Protein backbone atom coordinates (compact mmCIF):
# COMPACT_ATOMS: atom_id res chain seq x y z
CA UNK A 1 0.00 0.00 0.00
CA UNK A 2 1.30 3.48 -0.90
CA UNK A 3 2.61 5.61 1.92
CA UNK A 4 0.51 8.58 3.00
CA UNK A 5 2.42 11.84 3.39
CA UNK A 6 0.86 14.41 5.69
CA UNK A 7 1.43 18.12 5.04
CA UNK A 8 0.82 20.47 7.97
CA UNK A 9 -1.74 22.85 6.50
CA UNK A 10 -1.98 25.68 9.02
CA UNK A 11 -0.38 28.40 6.93
CA UNK A 12 2.33 28.84 4.30
CA UNK A 13 3.31 26.78 1.25
CA UNK A 14 1.41 23.57 2.00
CA UNK A 15 -0.47 23.71 -1.34
CA UNK A 16 2.85 23.78 -3.19
CA UNK A 17 4.06 20.71 -1.29
CA UNK A 18 0.80 18.92 -2.07
CA UNK A 19 1.27 19.72 -5.77
CA UNK A 20 4.90 18.52 -5.69
CA UNK A 21 3.79 15.22 -4.14
CA UNK A 22 1.11 14.77 -6.83
CA UNK A 23 3.73 15.32 -9.55
CA UNK A 24 5.69 12.29 -8.35
CA UNK A 25 2.62 10.13 -7.81
CA UNK A 26 2.63 10.29 -4.01
CA UNK A 27 -0.46 10.56 -1.83
CA UNK A 28 -0.51 13.72 0.26
CA UNK A 29 -3.12 14.74 2.83
CA UNK A 30 -3.56 18.05 4.61
CA UNK A 31 -3.13 17.91 8.39
CA UNK A 32 -4.75 20.46 10.70
CA UNK A 33 -5.70 18.45 13.77
CA UNK A 34 -3.74 16.21 16.14
CA UNK A 35 -5.88 13.14 15.39
CA UNK A 36 -5.03 13.40 11.68
CA UNK A 37 -1.40 12.59 12.49
CA UNK A 38 -2.50 9.06 13.37
CA UNK A 39 -3.32 8.18 9.76
CA UNK A 40 -0.09 9.24 8.05
CA UNK A 41 3.31 7.64 7.46
CA UNK A 42 5.40 10.82 7.26
CA UNK A 43 4.97 14.56 7.71
CA UNK A 44 6.07 17.73 5.92
CA UNK A 45 6.08 20.99 7.90
CA UNK A 46 6.11 23.69 5.19
CA UNK A 47 7.50 27.17 4.96
CA UNK A 48 5.47 30.16 6.04
CA UNK A 49 5.51 32.71 8.84
CA UNK A 50 6.90 30.73 11.76
CA UNK A 51 5.36 32.88 14.52
CA UNK A 52 1.90 32.67 12.94
CA UNK A 53 2.27 28.92 12.41
CA UNK A 54 3.28 28.49 16.05
CA UNK A 55 0.25 30.46 17.25
CA UNK A 56 -2.07 28.34 15.10
CA UNK A 57 -0.39 25.13 16.27
CA UNK A 58 -0.90 26.25 19.86
CA UNK A 59 -4.52 27.11 19.17
CA UNK A 60 -5.14 23.59 17.82
CA UNK A 61 -3.05 22.02 20.64
CA UNK A 62 -0.78 20.43 18.05
CA UNK A 63 2.63 20.73 19.72
CA UNK A 64 2.35 17.64 21.98
CA UNK A 65 1.14 15.52 19.06
CA UNK A 66 3.86 16.85 16.74
CA UNK A 67 6.56 16.06 19.30
CA UNK A 68 5.12 12.57 19.73
CA UNK A 69 5.10 12.07 15.95
CA UNK A 70 8.76 13.10 15.65
CA UNK A 71 9.55 10.70 18.49
CA UNK A 72 7.99 7.74 16.67
CA UNK A 73 10.83 7.71 14.16
CA UNK A 74 8.54 8.37 11.20
CA UNK A 75 10.10 10.74 8.62
CA UNK A 76 9.54 14.47 9.14
CA UNK A 77 10.70 17.22 6.76
CA UNK A 78 10.74 20.89 7.64
CA UNK A 79 11.22 23.56 4.96
CA UNK A 80 12.06 27.15 5.97
CA UNK A 81 9.65 27.81 8.88
CA UNK A 82 9.37 24.03 9.25
CA UNK A 83 13.13 23.91 9.87
CA UNK A 84 12.67 26.43 12.70
CA UNK A 85 9.90 24.29 14.20
CA UNK A 86 12.13 21.19 14.25
CA UNK A 87 15.26 22.83 15.68
CA UNK A 88 16.18 22.17 19.30
CA UNK A 89 17.29 25.80 19.62
CA UNK A 90 16.36 28.97 17.74
CA UNK A 91 17.92 32.43 17.98
CA UNK A 92 17.02 35.73 16.36
CA UNK A 93 13.40 35.33 17.44
CA UNK A 94 10.86 38.02 18.15
CA UNK A 95 10.39 39.19 21.73
CA UNK A 96 9.00 36.32 23.78
CA UNK A 97 10.23 33.73 21.28
CA UNK A 98 8.06 30.93 19.99
CA UNK A 99 7.37 27.34 20.89
CA UNK A 100 9.38 24.68 19.03
CA UNK A 101 8.69 21.03 18.25
CA UNK A 102 12.40 20.13 18.50
CA UNK A 103 14.10 16.87 17.68
CA UNK A 104 16.79 18.23 15.36
CA UNK A 105 20.10 18.78 17.15
CA UNK A 106 20.95 22.21 15.78
CA UNK A 107 20.83 25.93 16.43
CA UNK A 108 18.89 27.84 13.79
CA UNK A 109 18.80 31.59 13.24
CA UNK A 110 15.19 32.44 12.54
CA UNK A 111 15.84 35.28 10.09
CA UNK A 112 19.45 34.80 9.03
CA UNK A 113 19.10 36.07 5.45
CA UNK A 114 17.14 39.20 6.31
CA UNK A 115 13.80 40.58 5.23
CA UNK A 116 11.44 39.65 2.41
CA UNK A 117 13.29 42.14 0.20
CA UNK A 118 16.51 40.18 0.72
CA UNK A 119 15.01 36.93 -0.58
CA UNK A 120 17.11 35.32 -3.32
CA UNK A 121 17.77 32.24 -5.44
CA UNK A 122 21.08 30.46 -5.86
CA UNK A 123 22.61 27.17 -7.04
CA UNK A 124 23.51 24.82 -4.20
CA UNK A 125 26.01 21.98 -4.33
CA UNK A 126 24.14 18.77 -3.37
CA UNK A 127 26.32 15.72 -4.16
CA UNK A 128 24.45 13.48 -1.72
CA UNK A 129 21.12 14.30 -3.36
CA UNK A 130 22.58 13.55 -6.80
CA UNK A 131 24.06 10.28 -5.56
CA UNK A 132 20.74 9.07 -4.15
CA UNK A 133 18.25 10.52 -6.62
CA UNK A 134 20.32 11.12 -9.77
CA UNK A 135 20.52 14.29 -11.80
CA UNK A 136 22.79 17.27 -11.39
CA UNK A 137 25.19 17.83 -8.49
CA UNK A 138 23.44 21.17 -7.92
CA UNK A 139 19.89 22.26 -7.17
CA UNK A 140 18.09 25.59 -7.21
CA UNK A 141 17.68 27.03 -3.73
CA UNK A 142 14.81 29.50 -3.28
CA UNK A 143 15.34 31.48 -0.06
CA UNK A 144 12.41 33.61 1.11
CA UNK A 145 13.02 35.53 4.34
CA UNK A 146 14.90 32.39 5.21
CA UNK A 147 16.50 30.93 8.33
CA UNK A 148 19.88 29.23 8.41
CA UNK A 149 21.56 26.65 10.62
CA UNK A 150 24.45 28.04 12.67
CA UNK A 151 25.57 24.88 14.49
CA UNK A 152 24.79 21.16 14.32
CA UNK A 153 25.34 18.21 16.65
CA UNK A 154 27.67 15.34 15.80
CA UNK A 155 24.83 13.10 14.58
CA UNK A 156 23.58 15.64 12.04
CA UNK A 157 24.59 15.17 8.40
CA UNK A 158 25.10 18.42 6.47
CA UNK A 159 23.55 18.11 2.99
CA UNK A 160 24.08 21.65 1.69
CA UNK A 161 25.56 25.00 2.63
CA UNK A 162 25.79 28.32 0.83
CA UNK A 163 27.85 31.51 0.93
CA UNK A 164 26.76 34.24 3.29
CA UNK A 165 25.50 37.00 0.93
CA UNK A 166 27.87 39.92 0.49
CA UNK A 167 26.83 43.13 2.18
CA UNK A 168 24.56 41.36 4.60
CA UNK A 169 24.53 42.84 8.15
CA UNK A 170 26.48 40.82 10.72
CA UNK A 171 24.44 38.39 12.82
CA UNK A 172 24.87 38.41 16.58
CA UNK A 173 24.21 35.11 18.33
CA UNK A 174 22.87 35.67 21.83
CA UNK A 175 24.61 33.11 24.03
CA UNK A 176 22.50 33.52 27.16
CA UNK A 177 22.74 35.11 30.57
CA UNK A 178 26.30 35.42 31.83
CA UNK A 179 27.84 34.58 28.43
CA UNK A 180 29.25 36.89 25.81
CA UNK A 181 27.35 37.33 22.55
CA UNK A 182 29.08 35.98 19.45
CA UNK A 183 29.09 37.38 15.94
CA UNK A 184 28.63 34.83 13.13
CA UNK A 185 31.80 35.31 11.12
CA UNK A 186 31.95 32.27 8.81
CA UNK A 187 31.71 32.84 5.06
CA UNK A 188 29.31 29.91 4.54
CA UNK A 189 26.22 28.78 6.40
CA UNK A 190 24.35 25.44 6.56
CA UNK A 191 21.01 25.27 4.73
CA UNK A 192 20.10 21.55 4.55
CA UNK A 193 20.61 18.69 7.01
CA UNK A 194 19.44 15.23 7.93
CA UNK A 195 19.42 13.57 11.34
CA UNK A 196 17.88 10.11 11.42
CA UNK A 197 14.20 10.50 10.54
CA UNK A 198 14.39 14.31 10.24
CA UNK A 199 15.14 16.21 7.01
CA UNK A 200 15.35 20.01 7.06
CA UNK A 201 15.94 22.64 4.39
CA UNK A 202 16.14 26.41 4.82
CA UNK A 203 15.00 26.87 1.21
CA UNK A 204 11.85 25.88 -0.71
CA UNK A 205 12.22 22.85 -3.06
CA UNK A 206 8.43 22.84 -3.48
CA UNK A 207 8.71 26.13 -5.42
CA UNK A 208 10.93 24.57 -8.11
CA UNK A 209 10.41 21.83 -10.70
CA UNK A 210 13.18 19.71 -9.12
CA UNK A 211 11.37 16.81 -7.44
CA UNK A 212 14.46 15.12 -6.01
CA UNK A 213 14.04 16.44 -2.46
CA UNK A 214 10.50 15.07 -2.33
CA UNK A 215 11.70 11.75 -3.76
CA UNK A 216 14.46 11.66 -1.15
CA UNK A 217 11.85 12.20 1.55
CA UNK A 218 9.71 9.36 0.17
CA UNK A 219 12.80 7.12 0.21
CA UNK A 220 13.24 8.00 3.90
CA UNK A 221 9.69 6.73 4.43
CA UNK A 222 10.56 3.46 2.67
CA UNK A 223 13.61 3.10 4.94
CA UNK A 224 11.41 3.73 7.98
CA UNK A 225 8.87 1.11 6.91
CA UNK A 226 11.63 -1.44 6.17
CA UNK A 227 13.07 -0.92 9.66
CA UNK A 228 9.62 -1.28 11.24
CA UNK A 229 9.02 -4.54 9.35
CA UNK A 230 12.44 -5.86 10.35
CA UNK A 231 11.76 -5.02 14.00
CA UNK A 232 8.34 -6.68 13.77
CA UNK A 233 9.86 -9.79 12.19
CA UNK A 234 12.56 -9.96 14.86
CA UNK A 235 9.94 -9.59 17.59
CA UNK A 236 7.81 -12.35 16.03
CA UNK A 237 10.82 -14.68 15.76
CA UNK A 238 11.67 -14.02 19.38
CA UNK A 239 8.08 -14.73 20.45
CA UNK A 240 8.02 -17.95 18.41
CA UNK A 241 11.26 -19.05 20.09
CA UNK A 242 9.79 -18.31 23.50
CA UNK A 243 6.63 -20.26 22.68
CA UNK A 244 8.72 -23.15 21.35
CA UNK A 245 10.80 -23.30 24.50
CA UNK A 246 7.66 -23.26 26.65
CA UNK A 247 6.06 -26.12 24.66
CA UNK A 248 9.21 -28.23 24.57
CA UNK A 249 9.04 -31.42 26.61
CA UNK A 250 11.10 -31.08 29.78
CA UNK A 251 14.39 -33.01 30.00
CA UNK A 252 13.82 -36.07 32.18
CA UNK A 253 16.51 -37.99 34.01
CA UNK A 254 17.61 -41.28 32.41
CA UNK A 255 17.79 -44.20 34.81
CA UNK A 256 19.96 -47.16 33.93
TrEMBL record:
Q: Which GO terms describe its molecular function?
A: glutaminase activity
Similarity comment? Belongs to the glutaminase PdxT/SNO family.
Pfam families per UniProt? SNO (PF01174)
Concerning CDD domains, the annotation shows: GATase1_PB
Q: What is this protein called?
A: Glutaminase
Question: Could you name the active-site residues?
Answer: 80, 204, 206
Per the record, the GO terms for biological process are: pyridoxal phosphate biosynthetic process
Q: Which Gene3D superfamilies match?
A: 3.40.50.880
Amino acid sequence: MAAVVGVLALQGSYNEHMAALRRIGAKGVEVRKAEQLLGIDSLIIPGGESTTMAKLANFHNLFPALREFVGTGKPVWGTCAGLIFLADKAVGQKTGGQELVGGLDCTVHRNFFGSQLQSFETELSVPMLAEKEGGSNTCRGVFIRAPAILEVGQDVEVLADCPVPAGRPSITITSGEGLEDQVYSKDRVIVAVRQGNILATAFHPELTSDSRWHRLFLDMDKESQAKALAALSLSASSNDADVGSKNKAPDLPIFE
